[in-house]
Amino acid sequence: MTGNLSLLGSTGSIGTQTLDVVRKLGIPVCALAAHSNIDLLEQQAREFSPKLVAVYEEQAALELKKRLADSHIEVTVGMEGLCQAAKYPEADVVLNAVVGMVGLQPTLEAIEAQKNVALANKETLVAGGTLVMEKAKQKGIKILPVDSEHSAIFQCLQGCPTPKALNRLILTASGGPFFGKTREELKQVTPQQALKHPNWNMGAKVTIDSATMMNKGLELMEAFWLFSMPVDRIDIVVHRESIVHSLIEYQDHSMIAQMGVPDMRIPIQYAITWPERYPSPVEQLDLTKVGSLTFYSPDEETFTCLRACKKAIRKGGLAPAAANGANETAVPLFLQGKISFPDIGCLVEQAVERQEAGTVSCLEDILQADNAARAFVLDSVGAR
Ligand code: NDP
Ligand code: MG
User: In this predicted model, what pLDDT tens digit does every residue of 158-190 receive, in sequence order?
Assistant: First the structure.
């Protein structure tokens, strides 16, 4: 089992479920980080006694420092503070569960400091895949997937004799709350409707990403990097029940699937304890209760985010960073009622078309493409 854990994004959906796993397995936590939810962070700090707590937002960091004055816990602030948590000397594994591009720099810092990284923050790999995977290789560390689909593939791959034996990867998608709707119907969709996911209980951004299927597009790119698999050998099938979390197909056309109830604590625990297995509080899957499993082709003409992400990964270079940056900016605009639901896909697709592939040689290149895509979205809707 792992030694010390540093947990970035501890107050979020993945973060709190990680602490549930950690609490049950008795894994020591040496660092916690969040944006500004200091009420929860204080509770977590008092329960898990980390040595360091990083708070991104300055005022919140000052307040937490005062509140924790009776302890020996160091409180750090901003991006520098977040990176300190990512490279905390005593950490053996860093679980990155912050949401968005802000997670890229801490991921790179953790790898630089030779920590294994359990990665939930998919935006990191989408925008910075080249840098992250190169650095991971150079430093000889592992990137362990937390995302349920990638964990499923990773689990199916245990025992794979050689990468050559593998034919394709099949990512499953729930289809979200609007599966089967037409483009016309999607124009009327409200944020409240989009925030209701049928199977998973997640943070707001990833829930909207699931509804637009941007999430599956991001996951396609994530799989491309994690498993070095060309994009035309990664298929996507809509599977409404979210029981089969993804599959692999070997050259002999034998397929292997990973199944379980939809509960993130299984993939979180596997990322932390790999290659070992431990008991889990997650309920057993009763196949007779599930009854039947269904599979459909995704509708890329209606859910254009998926099509945009495929274009981005085929174009390569900086295009995925543009897709991600445009989406991260468009989602809050939709939640604020400033753009319609299908506008998200249109903006992502246009941002991908505008971005030249270029070359990715450093973090600055990625941040520039990300900023350009964000500015494009804001300008397009007159929100700057
Ligand atoms: P949430 O919105 O629930 O949580 C986000 C976390 O990130 C919070 O702890 C938040 O802190 C923290 N955070 C945000 N900005 C910063 C910052 N600048 N510095 C430090 N911490 C920050 O998101 P989820 O847990 O749902 O998702 C996290 C990541 O995992 C995303 O990339 C998502 O795509 C991925 N993922 C999520 C799944 C899920 O089931 N939820 C499934 C698979 C992947 P605060 O609370 O203070 O704002
Ligand atoms: Mg997923």
Answer: 988 898 999 999 999 999 999 999 999 999 999
Residue 114's closest CA among 91, 134, 95, 133?
Answer: 91
Sole residue written with tokens 């209701």: 196
Phi, psi of 310, rounded to the nearest 5 degrees: -65, -45
Question: How high is the pLDDT of residue 340?
Answer: 97
| Sheet with 74-77, side-by-side order of all strands | 74-77, 52-55, 29-34, 5-8, 93-96, 116-119, 143-145
Distance (Å, rounded) from C-alpha 328 to C-alpha 330? 6
Burial of 335 (0-12, 13-18, 19+ CB in 10 A): middle
According to DSSP, residue 57 is labeled S
The best mutation among 6, 13, 101 to test binding of ligand 1, ranked by most ligand atoms within 8 Å of the C-beta, falls on 13
What are the Cα distances from residue 294, in Å, to 238, 257, 297? 8, 14, 11
Query: Residue 118 forms beta bridges with which residues?
Result: 95, 144
Q: Give the predicted TM-score (pTM) of the model.
A: 0.97
- What's the 195 CA to ligand 1 centre distance in angstroms? 15
Determine whether the shortest distance from the Cβ of 264 to ligand 1 is under 6 A: yes
> Is the distance from CB of 198 to CB of 217 less than 8 angstroms?
no
Rounded to the nearest whole angstrom, what is the distance from the C-alpha of residue 99 to the centroid of ligand 1?
4
